[in-house]
Amino acid sequence: DHDLGDGKPVGCKGKIDFLFVISRYSGMAYFQTQLRDAFPKFIDTIEAKFADFDYHIMVVDGDATWGVSTCDEQCPTQCVPNYPCGYTPTYCDTRIGAGTVFPAGGDAANQPCDIDGGRRYMTTGQSKLKETFACVAQVGSSGNAQIGDALTAAVHSNTNDPGGCNPGFLRRDALLMVTLISNTYESPGMPWGSQGTPETWAAAVRKAKGDSLESVVLLNIGDTMVPGCHEKDRLCQMVKLFPFALNAEVWAQDYGPFFEEATDLVETACAGFVPPQ
């Protein structure tokens, strides 16, 4: 006697969690600029597609440390222009997978980013959204490229539950779009890279999204030649495990076309979205 509806997917209704995982490896300054340049149009395009656009936006970097240890040792002399010697990092500043709010180091913003509400991620109505994103996305080039580790930690329940560094970021009834940006391979055994495998990273995302990768869109902007994957490029290999995913070339002069293609994937995935029970 119950009304079971017409059997069609509920859809995400414009509710989307955006997770950006950005390498802090040497030489990343140029690629972070490319991302910041592409972001405004990307958000405008998504907003135009969804009348009730409801976002969470978080940036995490590929390193568990805050700032640069050599600069900390030299303070108050600044080994990097505008390095914030007077700042004491918090517990979450030094946890991989925690939202970035104060990027510090070479080529970094070297200032606190004005995220509303004291959270480590932005939500719908964030004041000066594009400027704030530009601040948090300038994570710099003084660190590691542990993208797989950062992705896994960012979606883990310990990070998103109350008491974690990013409480409430991941919503069960929201589509998740993940953007990865790195200029080096996640080669096994490299000191700057991650533990685990493409399969374990994908499994962490699957678990976080109620055992459904159909509720995830993945854009990997990496040091890869599309459509093939180098045998050492584990991020590129992970993309193949997701039904809505795209590999793109980090050396491209404009990331805009990548995000335009990703918005089509978001629209398709959103239409078929079924929130987990």
Structure notes:
The structure is a single chain. The chain is α/β, with parallel strands linked by helices and 277 residues long. The protein is built from 8 helices and 6 strands. The protein has a 6-stranded mixed beta sheet, sandwiched between helices. Helix 1 (29-49) packs across helix 8 and helix 4 (147-155) runs parallel beside helix 6.
- Record the strand order, biggest sheet: 3-2-1-4-5-6
Tally of separate helices: 8
Low-confidence stretches: none
Helix/strand order: EHEHEHHHEHEHEH
Question: Whole-number radius of gyration?
Answer: 18 Å
Instruction: Name the helicity range.
Output: 25-40%
Q: What is the beta-strand fraction?
A: 5-15%
Mean pLDDT: 93
Structural class designation:
alpha/beta
Please state the overall shape, judged from the principal axes of the Cα atoms.
globular
The major pleated sheet works out as: 6 strands, mixed
How many DSSP-defined strands?
Answer: 6
| Head-to-tail CA distance between termini | 21 Å
SSE topology sketch:
Layout: E1 15-22, H1 29-49, E2 54-61, H2 69-74, E3 122-123, H3 129-136, H4 147-155, H5 157-160, E4 175-181, H6 198-208, E5 216-222, H7 234-239, E6 245-249, H8 256-271
Parallel strand pairs: 1-2, 1-4, 4-5, 5-6
Antiparallel strand pairs: 2-3
Helix pairs in contact: 1-8, 4-6
List keywords for this structure.
277 residues, six-stranded mixed sheet, 13% strand, alpha/beta, globular
Q: Outline of this structure?
A:
This protein is α/β, with parallel strands linked by helices. Helices cover 29% and strands 13% of the residues.
